[in-house]
Request: fold
Amino acid sequence: MVALNTTVIAWVIFAVILVGWIVYFFLNKASARRELGSEAEMAPNRRTYYDDDVLEGRRLERMQILGVLLLLTLVIGLPAVWIHEPARQAGAVAGKNERFRFWGEELFQTTANGGFNCAGCHGGLKATGGQAPYAVTDPNTGEVKAVNWYAPALNTVFYRFSQDEVRFILQYGRPFSPMSAWGSLGGGPMTDQNIETLLVYLQSIQIKPTAGTCLTKADFVDKADPYVCDGGTLPQTNKDEITNAVKAYQAAHPGASEGEALFNSDLSSGAYSCARCHTQGWSYGDPGVTAQGGMGWNLTGGSTNAHFPNETDMISFIKAGSQMGKKYGMQGQGSGRMPGFGHLLTDEQIKAIVDYVRSL
Reply:
């Protein structure tokens, strides 16, 4: 607000100076006398000028007063500009972010509203999770069938992925899913500028934590972005959704552990279910054998324990997710595709999932 007021004041000063010069020009032009006679008679150095009494008297005093006024303007004006400069810069950044958010929202709109239909798949402008039409091929029979793929909620995407990872997904898409490459680097229609505006819009719709404070940068899980808060301050909406989904799964599957329920639960957003990636067909409502692999690798038959002999390492990996090029487990190298859940699930919930997976 201060920055905007400063801008208004600057424009007012500019307008006053401009009007003053225009008035001065016309008054001076009107008062000028047309000189008659030869060129020598019209030469300025032939005109009678002020005598010494005037030059060293009231005219000199006027010039001195004017100099003092200009000095005061500099002495007062420069510090005033300097004081308001941080607010002006903050206002400029806020203005840029708001423009990017608006442009990103336009891109996120459905096709009918002139956008790229992100809202059409991901559950409207709030991106609470939706469905996307897709065609899958049965590898055994070659049969092609149309399905509705559960598109995940994006209002918590920055709790699961870093900004760089979301940018990568937008650029190159998600292979073997309806999420195609949208960025020009991946062969899509969006420019790098479009991708950046989408990122700003996605940041603006993230569900805010209901209590607590954000961690300092030194406390972050390796790849977390600065605006992400820790698991102790989960967004209440997500906390309730996860709790209700676990209860519903256990009611439908008596005797199921919390870890099994968390792994397989049919959340409306599909953003937190491990089965989304690790169970073939889960994403379009036709799940195969639990945890035998889909977009994510097979977790059954002891493979998990072979990858992570140390349970603590596995817990840390699930909390942070895979990071591009970084080693994990015994011989794994991160691709950035596995999201981190340390900001959405509690330590106890992650431990329950690990216990269940290691038992498969």
